[in-house]
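Pipeline run #58 for the internal structure catalog. This entry was flagged by the ingest filter as a single-chain record with no existing model, so it goes straight to prediction. Upstream metadata was stripped on purpose; only the residue string is passed forward. Reviewer on rotation: M.T. Logging verbosity set to normal.
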Amino acid sequence: MITGASGFIGSHLARLALQAGAEVAALALPDDPLTRLLELADRLTVLRADLSDEDALRTMIADLRADACVHLAWYAEPGKYLESPRNVPDLLNSLRLLGALIETGCPQVVMVGTCAEYDLRAGYVREDSAVRPETIYAACKLALGLVGAQMARASGVSFTWARLFYLYGPSEDERRLVPALIRSLLRGESFQATSGEQVRDYLHVEDVAQALWLLAERRRAEVFNVCSGEPVTIRQLLETVADLVGGRELVRFGEVPYRPWDPMFVCGDNRKLRGEGWSAGYTLRQGLEQTVDWWRWRLQAS
């Protein structure tokens, strides 16, 4: 079972799981149009429920009898989610979901956190690095990981906490950095950016989905960084995209100020994940080239 299956990560994970021969149930809100899953609709079991409806959720999960659940559903509107009060209901609903999964005997649960749980002043961060969330979003994610692990441990359920870093790839929300830049350059429009000295750790969404699939199979009751482990400056990222699309002169570096809370260095240590047999399928340039091609197709088709 995948919650948030119609989202950026969830749609790629659903596709991967189907390709691997799994039976996939997508848990979605009653009014979710499932736009990213339209071509998969006849191969999925679509379950319609609100996570806040605990009784209906428990009945649905009991009937499903899933071997594993990957929980991705969470409010993530760009520019709003970090400090949104909607993070608190998502935390509570996630704990309700976990409670229902435990009660109905689901043996493996994978839930996703964020690199922003860490104290990002520390440089490279490992799974045992200090935590210091700076936003409501990061604090709620950290709380879910801590409480969820205790709930699962007391019940004999395997609970995996996957801390995601920075993502990109096809079907990402067009308001996010990489697609926003690609769309602007494909249209010949200028793009305002910071000076680009911030360092980030970017991983293609298909590699993220592969990691989550692997962790669901491994059933490790542990925390894992899901990241590339390779630092890149925002300037390097944007210049690579501009070289692939054309129009580097359209990227206006230095016209957007740094956000006061924005860390200057975020990069993870992924040795623990690689120790499980995972490896990235894309280099950054390969992944960006594939993403540019996808947006070219998307804009031509629209």
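catalog note: Residues 113 and 141 are 5 Å apart (CA to CA).
catalog note: The domain at 2-167+203-226 is CATH 3.40.50.720 (Rossmann fold).
status: ready for reviewer M.T.
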